[in-house]
Amino acid sequence: MRPALVLLQSHCLLCVFGGMCVPIVMGSQPPALPWHVSCPARCVCQIKPWFSPDSVYHEAPTVDCNDLLLTNLPSPIPLDTHTLHLQSNLLSVLDTAVLHGLPNLTDLDLSQNRFSHVRTITDRFSLPSLLSLHLEENHLTHLPEASFASLPALQELFLSHNYLHSIAPGAFVGLDSLFRLHINNNRLTTVNPQWFKALPRLEVLMLGGNPVESLPERGFIALKSLRSLVLGGMGLKGLAEKALEGLDSLESLSFYDNLLTKVPTQALRRVPGLKFLDLNKNRIKLIGTGDFQDMVHLKELGLNNMEELVSIDRAALQNLPELTKLEITNNPRLSYIHPQAFLKLSRLESLMLNSNSLSALHQHIMLSLPNLQEVSLHSNPLRCDCLFHWAAKEVSHPRLEKDTEADAQTPRVVRFIQPQATLCSEPPELRARRVREVSSGEMSALCLPMIPASSLPSFVGVREGGKLVLHCRALADPQPELYWVTPSGLKLHPEPMHASKASSTPLPCKSRRTSEEFNLTSEANTPRQQNEDNIPCQLLKHYRVLPEGTLEISKISAREAGMYTCVAENAIGADTRSVNVGVHNREKRRNRGAAANLKKFQLLRADARFEVREIREHYAILSWQSGHNLPSTRLSWQAMFSKAHSPTYTTRILAGTQSFNLTHLQAGTYYRVCMHLGISEGTKHASRRLRESRKPQCVSFRTKDAPEPQPSLQLNPQLTSTAVTLLLLAIILLLAGQGWDSETGEGTGKNHNTSHHDIRGYKALIVNQKAKGSDDPQPKQNDKLLLHRNC
């Protein structure tokens, strides 16, 4: 929620319980009426509308003496005065005897004056009718015991924007009827549970703006009637599990503008009736699985203005049956929402996601929200591809609802908020087109993985022995697999999805250190083979990759500094993003760590040996051995022709890859292939000298010649049939001759030779027929003569 919207919602809630919608209601009331009394000089006396803290309307005789630079109370003040405004004067003391003579005084405004001691206002005389006291923007520094005991009917007390640094444990004794207490924007550093024991009916408490870094456990347990609690701008870094225990009636809670780094899930579960939750402008980096789960009464949730929020993970919001409005806006690094981030949000009607870094909103999200009425996606770098088919102009709704009675399907329309500003950023041919005006046919059927640049910085510094956490996310279709490559070239794959969220189990001893070959069939490459090596346990005991892609390294050492690369890969392509990690101790500075990392990179270049491992007619296998991660590496190759210029082709090599199968080459051709080593683009800590020294390593080779085609005999079907017939006739004649020889012994030798000669002639004819039916060259002249003679 935006701050103004949060404030409005808080005011509306307080209107129900504390009467803070006065300006709204007064706008529809009659104007102020004249009050014919003896009015103090320069003051204005009128009959004005007024609402009590419990929202009861009154026509209140009002004396308005604001902005008159008064140093004393004006006189004479009419005895029937109900409301006395003394705002923005120079009052430092107060003649309480004059106020004691005003039996109907209900509302006293002393804000923006110079009071430094509350006793100068509340001592000596009782004001039994006073319901509301404004002391904002004075010079109060301390509240002693029983500071307001003379105001037994008080229902509203405003002490914000003073200099209060201490409050006595019993400062509010006697305020049994107090509904509303503002002590925000002071200098309190702790919250004392003793303060609230005297406030059994308190419904609204504003504590924000005090430099309180932590709240005590059960600090509000005495506030059984509290409905609204504002803890904004306090510097809270975390919340104890029992910090909110006992707030069984609490409905509205704000943590706006604190230093929370994660959702205080355990503490929120102690507030069963919570309806409105504001976590805007905190340092939360990701909304994890189960962070908002089973908050069955929650109606509105704000996760806006978070500079470091990058991801909303699977099942982050689950089983929130009353949630109707969800605002996740103005988060400049938020680039990933898991397709199953929102589960069992059956009543969600409004989803605000504008002004983030989202490239898409997955169709599964839309399908999981059966009552969604409107969505806001403008001011995002939207990628109009297969993930956005649900938003195409010819699609009325991403799902179809079944009518249980008529068994009919009724389309429902999800309205785009500011559709004119909801534009495509990618691909280039659809850039600046309105999403609602793009047809599904113009969008691609498959989506390449893309790791948003905003998800990972180019450099991260961490103290030696500390914990490193790097978040990497990617959306694509098919859903990509993510893994990390360490500076030493190890591939770290995520834990199984069923692993416990709170588990701290390191990676298993058998990890993957792979050498992959990529077949160049298109711009996107796919892995062909993997070889696994066993990695010693001691090298992996501090590493952990969560199922969503977060890399955690506990107790990091200086030898683990260097380039870490996240790889997102699916069946059609891959994307990588690298981050340079510097490890330093208390004596070393970040720049020294960066210089050491760059020195390591220079050694890395010498370690990477580029060579040709195998050459064939149409492919060549290239390999390089390196004990280090090689991010931003690419290959370029060119055929070396003597008479014509050939184009140069390039492809990017995924981190952790140590071989490449270069295919679609021409036989008998010279090629020159170069490997360009580089550090991650945009690295700020790379010196100019280092960048200029990145010369490619090149090799040249010649592919093998294609073997000459061997002549083959192909039979014409018609000639083949003729040859078979003649062959059968020859066999019959042979058998007949043998039979005749057996009967007449005289002509045996002669007839035998004649039959053998005929068979040779037929064989030669068959060979000639085969040659004629083939594409091979015709028989030589001497072969033809031999054939004629045999025939």
From TrEMBL:
Pfam families according to UniProt: Ig_3, LRR_8
Annotated stretches, region: Disordered: 686-714, 770-791
UniProt keyword Nucleotide-binding, yes or no: no
Ranges of biased composition (kind: Basic and acidic residues): 772-791
Residue ranges of every copy of the Ig-like domain listed in the record: 449-582
Intracellular or extracellular location(s): Cell membrane
Cited SUPFAM superfamilies: Fibronectin type III, Immunoglobulin, L domain-like
Domain of life, source organism: Eukaryota
Protein name, per record: Ig-like domain-containing protein
Native source organism of the sequence: Oreochromis aureus
